Structure formats: structure tokens, C-alpha cells
């Protein structure tokens, strides 16, 4: 997938911005605070429905603005063109595909962007919800059946939690149907995630051996969110009393996680911050590689503040991995990163919320 155009209005400091990214590598340069990262943020919004920065979607709105919009024309590997949009006005968010209002999930399925940025180490060191989002985003794009099961599970989870929050004695007649739906969709979700990870790990390993060879063999372990010695339906029934006391469901795929280990660093706590970043980078590139293998096209790859996040050796390694592939890459920096100075790139200057292509 590639962006043929990107228009941004009311997003942080960006307003009235129109960009035609190169089909290969585009570099956005400018001073700190000029709005470079927000360009990548706009692309990421269309693909994930949220920013990679901390905070709610509401904080994206430019100060003093009453609306925000990101529009793009994208072209898929099968030469299929799509017009995508995400906007906020009067406190409401709306997604569009080819002019038609759609759900946020439908928009996300049409746009594939992965991003390596200063907070990417949270994929390794952060809370479990970061890793669940990582898995589920990949599945949204390659397993259409996953979306329906995910929605079924979220609906049943909401209903069971609502019953638990009443604090009233549990009525099996009310609880049983939702637990049955939760167990069926939850077991299906877990199956999708396990299968996805089985396919993903070899792609990650292919990159991990290059960025962290000193740590030895890499492995990944999935945790379903409940003790799989018992099926989910039995677990939910057994935990009713405990869940009633806590007011929410304490077992299921919404509690799932995965952990990584290396031969010479069996615990995450053994990794330095720099190693966490490189590990996250290998995971993101592995996910992009699997996406390409299953969909026949690479997602757009964003690299935010590349020169600050990676040393020169790893910058050159990343560039070498992407050059020669049919992939669109968006890079930011205060200047063109050293690894790209001798490469065919298109440079854009970002200043005071405006973006200008440089010859």
C-alpha cells in the first residue's frame, strides 16, 4: 500500500497541509516542534484509529481549531485506489471510505501503516494492552473472520461486566448466555492470535538475529489470559464470585499477553532501553514482512526521528532492509539521516506547521 496524497487540517500544529509522498522514501526535516512527527501521526491515524503518542484522540485538535481532518488517496498492490478520511467535529469522530461513512474498524482495514518511534519500546516494556493491540492490528488485516469474533467478544464482555457491576446476587439465567458467547468468541480469538504468532515469529527472528545477535536465540510465549488447563467457559463460571467482588471479568483474551526471551536474556528486565528499542524494531519489521507475505504488499513504514533513536550502524541496517523492496517509507529528522544521504529520497521541509517539497 502507498499514499498517493495526504491532506491534513487542524492536527496539532498542521493546518492546510497537502503532501504527495514519494513511492519510495520521503524524509521530513525541520526543527524540533515544527510538526514533522504529526505528519507521520496523520498517516498512523488512518491505519490505527489512534495516535502512537500518549493521550486521547481529542488532544490531537489544533489549539483554537473546531475541527480536525485527515484525508488520503491510497493505492493497494492490486492497483486498487481508495479515498480515506478521518475527521473530528463537534466532539464526534467520523471515518469515511470513498465518501461513505464507515466504522473505524472498516477504515483501519483499508490502510496499513507500521511506525517505529520514540515510544516503540513500550511494545516490549509497556503494559499488556500494547502487545494485544500489536497482535490484533495485524489480524485485522489478514484474517477477516477475526473482526467478527473480536466484536462478538467485546459485546459479550461489556454485558457480563455490566451485570457484575450491579453488585446484585448473580442470576444464572442472565449470566449464562453472555458467558457462553464470551467463551465461544474468546476461544476463537485466542486461536487466531496463536496462529498469527506462529506465522509471525519466523519473520521476527529473521530481523532479530541481525539487530541483537549478542543475546542469542529469540523465543516468544503467548499467554491466553486464563489458565488453559481449564476451558474458558468453566473458568468464567468458576470465577463468578471473584469477578462480582471486583466488578469486572478477570479472565479471557482481554487479559492476554505475550512475553519475549533470549538465550542470554531470559527476562525482559535483562534488556537495556536500547535493546528494548531494537527488539521492538525487529517486531515491527517482522509484522510488516508477514503482512507483505500474506497480502502481497508491504504496509507503509514510518520511522520517526530515526537518527536520534538508532545509532549509525543500526540506521544503515534499517535502510538496507527497506531499500530494494516495494515499500513506501516516511522518515523524520532535524536533517536527512546519515544513512540516507546517498540514497534516492524525496525531502520535505516542515516549518511552523507547513510542509514544502524541496527540489
From TrEMBL:
GO terms for cellular component: cytoplasm. The keyword Calcium does not apply. One of its GO terms (biological process) is SOS response. Residues 4-353 form the RecF/RecN/SMC N-terminal domain. SUPFAM superfamilies: P-loop containing nucleoside triphosphate hydrolases (SSF52540). It is found in: Cytoplasm. ATP binds at residues 30-37. GO terms for molecular function: ATP binding; single-stranded DNA binding. It holds the Pfam family SMC_N. Keywords: ATP-binding, Cytoplasm, DNA damage, DNA repair, DNA replication, DNA-binding, Nucleotide-binding, SOS response. Belongs to the RecF family. HAMAP family: RecF (MF_00365). The RecF protein is involved in DNA metabolism; it is required for DNA replication and normal SOS inducibility. RecF binds preferentially to single-stranded, linear DNA. It also seems to bind ATP. This is DNA replication and repair protein RecF.
Amino acid at each position: 500500500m502507498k499514499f498517493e496524497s495526504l491532506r491534513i487540517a487542524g492536527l496539532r500544529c498542521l493546518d492546510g497541509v497537502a503532501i504527495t509522498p514519494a513511492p519510495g522514501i520521503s524524509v521530513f526535516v525541520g526543527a524540533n516542534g515544527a510538526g514533522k512527527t504529526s505528519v507521520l501521526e496523520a498517516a498512523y491515524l488512518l491505519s490505527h484509529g489512534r495516535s502512537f503518542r500518549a493521550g486521547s484522540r481529542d488532544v490531537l485538535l489544533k489549539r483554537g481549531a473546531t475541527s480536525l481532518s485527515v484525508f488520503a488517496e491510497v493505492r493497494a498492490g492490486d492497483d486498487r485506489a481508495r479515498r480515506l478520511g478521518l475527521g473530528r467535529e463537534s466532539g464526534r469522530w467520523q471515518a469515511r471510505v470513498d465518501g461513505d461513512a464507515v466504522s473505524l474498524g472498516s477504515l483501519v482495514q483499508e490502510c496499513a501503516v507500521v511506525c517505529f518511534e520514540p515510544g516503540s519500546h513500550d511494545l516490549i516494556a509497556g503494559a499488556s494492552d500494547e502487545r494485544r493491540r500489536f497482535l490484533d492490528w495485524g489480524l485485522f488485516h489478514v484474517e477477516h473472520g477475526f473482526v467478527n469474533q473480536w466484536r462478538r467478544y467485546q459485546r459479550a464482555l461489556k454485558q457480563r461486566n455490566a451485570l457484575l457491576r450491579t453488585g446484585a446476587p448473580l442470576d444464572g439465567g442472565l449470566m449464562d448466555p453472555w458467558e457462553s458467547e464470551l467463551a465461544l468468541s474468546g476461544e476463537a480469538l485466542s486461536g487466531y492470535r496463536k496462529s498469527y504468532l506462529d506465522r509471525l515469529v519466523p519473520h521476527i527472528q529473521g530481523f532479530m538475529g541481525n539487530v541483537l545477535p549478542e543475546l542469542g536465540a529469540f523465543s516468544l510465549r503467548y499467554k491466553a489470559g486464563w489458565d488453559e488447563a481449564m476451558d474458558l467457559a468453566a473458568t468464567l463460571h468458576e470465577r463468578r464470585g471473584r469477578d462480582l467482588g471486583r466488578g469486572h471479568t478477570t479472565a479471557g483474551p482481554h487479559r492476554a499477553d505475550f512475553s519475549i526471551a533470549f538465550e542470554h536474556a531470559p527476562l525482559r528486565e535483562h534488556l537495556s532501553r536500547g535493546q528494548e528499542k531494537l527488539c521492538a524494531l525487529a517486531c515491527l519489521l517482522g509484522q510488516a514482512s508477514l503482512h507483505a507475505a500474506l497480502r502481497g504488499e508491504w504496509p507503509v513504514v514510518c520511522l520517526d526521528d530515526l537518527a536520534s533513536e538508532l545509532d549509525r550502524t543500526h540506521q544503515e541496517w534499517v535502510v538496507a532492509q527497506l531499500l530494494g523492496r516495494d515499500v513506501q517509507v516516511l522518515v523524520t529528522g532535524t536533517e536527512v539521516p546519515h544513512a540516507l544521504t546517498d540514497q534516492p529520497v524525496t525531502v520535505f521541509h516542515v516549518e511552523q506547521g507547513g510542509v514544502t517539497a524541496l527540489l
